[in-house]
Amino acid sequence: MDSFGLTYPSMEHLLKNASLNEQQVRLYEQKSMDAVFNSCKNMQDGAKKARGDIEEQYRLYLLSGELAGLMTKNPKFEKWIKDKANAALFRSTYENVVEEASKLQTMLKMKYEAAQVRRDKQDRAVKQEAEKRVSSSSSSSQGAMRAIRALITPRELIRKVENEEPKKSALIFDLRQNQSDAIFYNRSEMITVIQVPYDLIDSSLTFQSLKNNLPVNQRALLPRVSGSDYVVLMDDESPELLNNSPAPKTKMSFLFKALTQYNSVDRLRDRPMFMDGGFKLWKAQYPTYTKDEQPLSSRTSPSDGLDQAILDYTSRSYGVSEIRYPDLMSKLSLSESLAPGQPLSPPRIPPRPADIPPEPYSEPPRNGGIGSGGIYPQAPTIPQRPIIPPTTIPPSIPTTTTFDRPGPPIFSPAPPGPPTVIPPKPYQPPPPVFPIPDRTSKPSTMPPDVSASDPSLARQNGGIDVKRPPPTLDRNTKPATISKEYEVQILSIYDQMTMAIDRSIDERTKSRGAGLPGAVGLYNMGNTCFMSATLQCLFQTPGLPEVFTRRNFVSQLNTQNTYGSKGVISAGFASLLDTIWTGPFQAIRPARFLQLFADEVYRNLNDGRQHDASEFQLFLLDALHEDTNQGKRISFEQNYKGGQGIRQEAADFLRKHYQFTMSPVNRILGTITVAEVRCLTCGESSATFEENTIVSVEITSNTSCTLDNCLRSHFSQTKLEGDSAWNCPKCKTPRTSTRTSKLWQPPPVLVIHLKRFALFYGDFEKNTASVAFDAARFDIRPYLHEAAPTDKPFYKLYAATLHNGRLNSGHYTSVASHLRNDKWHRYDDETVTPCEKFQVNPQLAYILFYKRC
Question: What is the pLDDT of residues 218-265, one digit of tens each?
């Protein structure tokens, strides 16, 4: 429910609570003018701090205005206002109060009217919802899906989303081979489209393998499958169905089974449907909801030095890893065209810097990847990037700083002798030069063991168990590492991001010693608090500041991994971290980082709207993980039985899993869980392991509960029956079964997401229940599998993302314990306030960050 639905059911009720009573009026009449004016100012300041709660803002502004009115009626006012300073302050304060209160009044009027409409719709739908729940509970238990019709036309789907009461939400899986045209719906929360790579779908597909192999810009959208009213599978045309199910051994059947039978993570509400007429009918009926999907690219004409550095890097990177051969049957290469009569000319090859030897040819990766996104604020359709020779970085200038940050120093000594210099492009000034780290030693594929060089640092940084022995990897094939040439170019991206951030910083916050390194505010650039609050928690996450520094992040990159950004996002994130931990700033403006992230990962995040902080965190962590993933992506099937042999099976899974995926991100944040399914007819069982960087749990009450209640419900036994019945391999038919999910290997940093938001009747509704949790000593043993190791089961809270208000009109803040001194700070956009003691409103807690203690 909305906050005003609980506190202020009507505008009249709100106004009654926004006025002084008689006793308060008499009290203020006896005070001096200065005292009353200070109270008036305090009310105004309190209203500004109450962002996200517009009722409270409006109430405080009205009280401030009433105090100003009392002052004008007081006989002492005439004498007090003769002072020009008092007159100017009173006038500006009163004008601001009137202006802000008028704006809020308009917003509140619209808000209450919309709320009344929603209440009416909900009242009309109560009977339908009650009947649905009664029917569902009588025929099946938790986890079962309702059998619904198999086909739905595009027109029917749009009608349900836009016109039906209550409105519905849909998630469409696009599994066409040619996805050059795609569905585009302006409210992506109502119709979400996930484009599944055609080659990914085969008989071995499971929900977990689908998640692991989706592009980063699609992967974080997958959890929406459990909250959507309709899940629709779409091919070019209508699918072939047998008994309302896809024909066996087809792409449609493989994806259908992955979402239903082989999905123990995000259970669907109802059985998936199929698009009647496929995409061809959609495009014919709704051309306005269709767009051409051009290759993603940041810009054809770079707008600043960062764009140029990315263009230089990606052009050379693509030139090596994605070599295209000319058509021998044609006299022209694929990248050239000639006018009639024009003579043939040899292809142009970008020159290499003189001091860098050419690299041996390596076979290009077979898997397709993703590119970068669009331009801020709206992504246009842009052709493929041209290939431009890279620019080397000029000799370095030593840079020093008086501030220390967690982890190794940022800048390393400059190498002896100047490298070859290529003049910068004419359109931009020459960039400042930075030292190039010494890379003569073989780079490590794991996060640096900072505790080895400084035993006190591990405890300073929150006591993370950074010495946890890594899983043994198969080293028969040397992992892809970044070459010296690419190292120079990726560091150029880092340097250009650093300069872009520096240019955006307010000079008033730049003075040395103005702020505490590590506790720096982030300006709100228009509904960007979802990003700011998330970043502040990640800045204080043990392990991440040690990995993503200018000195260390390059050695972690795998530029051959086509699932990531080839290090571009890691360079931007490392630059942001270094600025936070070394810069003497009170606040910075991360606009360029958001633009870069939208360009490279998910362009919708830069549309000026409010977004879900948990989804942004998933997008960011997935991008950083794939950039630094040193695993060889060797696929494998989990043919595990569970039961008595689950320990040996877990060891086998971890060995194979870390050959598939291994990065500093999943070493720090990766939570391994196991789900066991058992047939109630024959006793056959199956075990499936999976890894996530965020554990998302449902809130078990609408009023109050505990985190323990939520976790016990999440890691509990459910019954699979009806359309959710398990296809027992021994019985060779779907059987009623049980499914039990438990923690198997908790990480050094455990992140728990409380699922407060859900689409309800066409709008996001928030569960404002108070969720109590243990901040000092959180014991995870009740949620561990009985056969799992139980060493170091205690955690303590070090950060939390908070949300006040509704998703579309609320505000994100965060609290976090400083990595260096363990002192708590409250982060509200650009404002950072020290906290004497940890304090979180359990109704506002949204994402909880725990570290092992």
Answer: 888 998 888 888 999 999 999 999 888 899 999 999 999 889 878 767
Name the most confidently modeled range: 43-52, 423-432, 441-450, 815-824.
815-824
**CB count in 10 Å sphere of residue 456:** 8
Residue 735 pairs in a beta bridge with 726
Sequence-separated (6 or more) residues with CB below 8 Å from residue 786: 742
* Secondary structure of 324-390 as H, E, C letters: CCCCCCCCCCCCCCCCCCCCCCCCCCCCCCCCCCCCCCCCCCCCCCCCCCCCCCCCCCCCCCCCCCC
- Give the C-alpha separation, 206 to 212, whole Å: 10
Give the Cα separation of 834 and 623 in Å (integer). Answer: 31
Q: Is 262 exposed, middle or buried (0-12, 13-18, 19+ CB in 10 A)?
A: buried
Q: In this structure, what token pair is assigned to residue 790?
A: 């139980």
* Structure-model confidence comparison of residues 853 and 475, the more confident one: 853
Tell me the backbone φ, ψ of residue 239, rounded to 5 degrees. -80, 160
**Residue scoring higher pLDDT (844 or 146):** 844
The span from the CA of 812 to the CA of 815, in Å, is 11
What tokens does 39 get? 């109270």
Residue 835 Cα to chain centre, angstroms: 27
Tell me the β-bridge partners of 685. Answer: 678
Give pLDDT tens digits for 641-688: 999 999 999 999 999 999 999 999 999 999 999 999 999 999 999 999
Rounded to whole angstroms, how far apart are CA atoms 790 and 780? 9
How many angstroms separate the CA atoms of 354 and 392, rounded? 10
In angstroms, rounded to a whole number, what is the distance separating the alpha carbons of residues 364 and 256? 32
**What pLDDT, in 10s, does the model give residues 388-407?**
333 333 333 333 333 344 54
Distance CA 460, CA 464 (A): 9
> Residue 32: exposed, middle, or buried by beta-carbon count in 10 A (0-12, 13-18, 19+)?
exposed
**Cα 277 to Cα 286: distance, rounded to the nearest angstrom:** 13
In degrees, rounded to 5, the angle at the alpha carbon of residue 833 between the alpha carbons of residues 804 and 534 is 50
How far CA 165 is from CA of 66, 125, 547, 760, in Å, comes to: 43, 8, 50, 11
Residue with the larger pLDDT of the pair 289 and 506: 289
Whether the per-residue pLDDT at 1 is higher than 50: the answer is no
The sign one gets for the Cα dihedral 380, 384, 386, 392 is: positive
Burial class (CB in 10 A: 0-12, 13-18, 19+), 81: middle
683: DSSP letter: -
DSSP strands (E only) in 571-703: 587-588, 671-679, 685-692, 695-698
| Tens digit of each residue's pLDDT (9 = 90 or more) over 359-369 | 443 333 333 33
Res 266 pLDDT > 90: no
The H helix count followed by the E strand count for the chain is 25, 29
The DSSP annotation for 420-485 comes to P--PPPTTSPPPPP-------SPPPSS---HHHH-HHHHHHTT---TTPPPPPP--SSPPP---HH
The CA distances from residue 183 to 47, 171, 174, in Å, are: 42, 11, 9
Q: Comparing C-alpha atoms, which of 591, 754, 626 is closest to residue 217? A: 626
Tokens at residue 618, please? 């998933």
Domains and CATH numbers, the chain: 3-117 (1.20.58.80), 151-292 (3.40.250.10), 643-852 (3.90.70.10)
Using the predicted structure, report yes or no on whether residue 340 has a pLDDT greater than 70.
no
- 154: three-class secondary structure by DSSP: helix
Nearest residue to 538 (alpha-carbon basis) of 571, 504, 511, 573: 573
Taking Cα atoms as reference points, which of 156, 184, 648, 628 lies closest to residue 381? 184
